[in-house]
Amino acid sequence: MKALVTGAKGLVGRRLIRELDGAAVLGRDPTRARAKLGDVNAFAWQPDAGPPPVEAFSGVDVIFHLAGEPVAEGRWTAAKKRAIRDSRVQGTRNLVKALKSVKERPEVLVVASAVGFYGDRGDEELVEDSAPAATFLAEVCVAWEAEALAARELGLRVAMARTGIVLAPEGGALPRMLPPFRLGLGGQLGNGRQWMPWIHVDDVVSLLLHAARTDAVNGPMNVVAPNPVTNKVFTKTLGQTLRRPAVLPVPRLVLRAAFGEMSEILMASQRALPKVAQDTGYGFRYPELRPALDACLGQDPAQ
């Protein structure tokens, strides 16, 4: 399987590249991409400026489209929200536009999406045919996925990976959580009843490859562990893993003051379940939270 990857320098992209044999990448700075990723065939592309070069698709079987402005970095100013949307919606539109000029097209497009599609849904179990919300992130996801689905008209199978909170030792949400917890100052967010659709990074990469290789994955696929937990359970488990107390809750008003509108992604309750993944035969390496945290933090579960 020869792949073309966008967003290859990100947390998931770097891991994915290691699992692929000779992948090509699209990025804003090919020199930096090669420096960070090693011996890859890198092509220059500004996602919101126009289509990528057609030669990047030569011999490619599958595209993994992971590029997008980071959502959880910085306050959501008008400019930030525009960048979040344009990098995903316009970027995907430009990617599909380029495919129209490719004579021998890839067979599959696996595009990143997010559980933000569902918004704040309380205790409702969310599977891939659940309706979208009307929040900013949900509207971005809906438009993002619509642009990706246009590739079906060109003969590609399209899978949309609605990804949850990725747990990894080297990046993402977990390292940001650790300093207060290690000091014994960690605790639940708000009342702690919101569901957290977590997933270990190893399962994220394996699910992307599963989507690429499995014809039955056609459309949205929730990239989340099969056992979501509430924020209260998550913080308690993280504290137990670190052998530290986790008893200091962070009020919702404090989160709103600190993060502005972006605080909605911290407080939204999304009890998302990986129905498509399980129905198509995927077996999770980390179905339970504690072993996933132990793996990320280098803990011995027997201790």
Write a structural description.
With 303 residues, this protein is an alpha/beta fold. The chain has a domain at 3-165 and 199-226 and 273-285: 3-Layer(aba) Sandwich (Rossmann fold), CATH 3.40.50.720. It has eleven helices and 14 strands. The strands form four sheets. Strands 3-2-1-4-5-7-12 form a seven-stranded parallel sheet, with helices on both faces. α1 packs across α6 and α7 packs across α11 (289-297). The longest helix is centred in the first third of the chain and has 22 residues, at 78-99.
Number of helices: 11
- The helix content, as a percent range, equals 25-40%
Q: Identify the CATH architecture of the domain at 3-165 and 199-226 and 273-285.
A: 3-Layer(aba) Sandwich
CATH domain fold name of the domain at 3-165 and 199-226 and 273-285 = Rossmann fold
Strand order of the largest sheet: 3-2-1-4-5-7-12
The secondary-structure element order is EHEHEEHEEHEEEHEEHEEHHHEHH
- Residue-averaged pLDDT, rounded? 93
**What class would the helix/strand composition place it in?**
alpha/beta
Classified by CATH, the class of the domain at 3-165 and 199-226 and 273-285 is Alpha Beta
Strand portion, in percent?
Answer: 15-25%
Largest sheet: 7 strands, parallel
Would you identify the regions where 5 or more consecutive residues have pLDDT less than 50?
A: none
End-to-end C-alpha gap: 41 Å
**Oligomerization:** single chain
What's the count of strands? 14
**What Rg is obtained from the alpha carbons, in whole angstroms?**
19 Å
User: Superfamily at the CATH H level of the domain at 3-165 and 199-226 and 273-285?
Assistant: NAD(P)-binding Rossmann-like Domain
